């Protein structure tokens, strides 16, 4: 489905991945029950509106597991089958999750943390108390 797309079209699809976790709760990463010191610092930074890119990369590396990638891939497939995500975008998400890329994982982590600390609303519009 992605074959034949220009580099610009592929870039646009990957840019659109950034918005998926805000629109679909199942595409946010599952935060661990016990927060590491780095995750706590990332939560504080996002609550303050100033996420540190190096800290984000460190935490993404910690949550980037085969199980989390499979969970996200299954969620992408379910949304694609339900027509809540267009097929090309779903294919781009699956390509991202099946590679060394962490584009969707980063977006899912940032959105999950933002919802957790009350800096963003859930997909239903609920603002959680931090």
Account of the protein in words:
By secondary structure, the protein is mainly alpha-helical. Helices cover 60% and strands 0% of the residues. It has helices at 7-17, 20-23, 37-47, 53-63, 66-81, 87-97, 103-116. The longest helix is centred in the middle third of the chain and has 16 residues, at 66-81. The termini are far apart.
Search tags:
single chain, 130 residues, mainly alpha, 7 helices, 0% strand, globular
List the helices and strands and how they pair.
Elements: H1 7-17, H2 20-23, H3 37-47, H4 53-63, H5 66-81, H6 87-97, H7 103-116
Helix pairs in contact: 1-6, 3-4, 3-7, 4-7, 5-6
Q: What kind of sheet is the major sheet? A: none
Uncertain residue segments: none
Gyration radius from CA atoms, angstroms: 15 Å
Number of strands: 0
Q: Tell me, rounded to a whole number, the average pLDDT.
A: 89
What fraction of the residues are assigned to beta strands by DSSP? under 5%
Structural class of the helix and strand makeup? mainly alpha
Report the total helices. 7
H/E order of the elements? HHHHHHH
Percent of residues in helical segments? 55-70%
Overall 3D geometry? globular
Could you tell me how far the N terminus lies from the C terminus, measured between alpha carbons in angstroms?
41 Å
């Amino acid at each position: 489905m992605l074959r034949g797309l220009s580099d610009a079209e592929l870039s646009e699809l990957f840019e659109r991945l950034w918005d998926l976790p805000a629109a679909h709760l199942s595409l946010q990463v599952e935060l661990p029950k016990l927060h590491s010191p780095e995750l706590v610092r990332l939560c504080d930074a996002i609550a303050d509106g100033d996420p540190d890119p190096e800290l984000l990369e460190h935490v993404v590396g910690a949550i980037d597991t085969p199980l989390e990638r499979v969970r996200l891939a299954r969620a992408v497939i379910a949304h694609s089958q339900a027509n809540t995500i267009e097929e090309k975008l779903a294919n781009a998400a699956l390509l991202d999750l099946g590679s060394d890329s962490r584009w969707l994982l980063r977006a899912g982590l940032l959105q999950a943390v933002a919802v957790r600390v009350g800096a963003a609303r859930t997909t239903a519009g609920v603002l959680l108390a931090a």
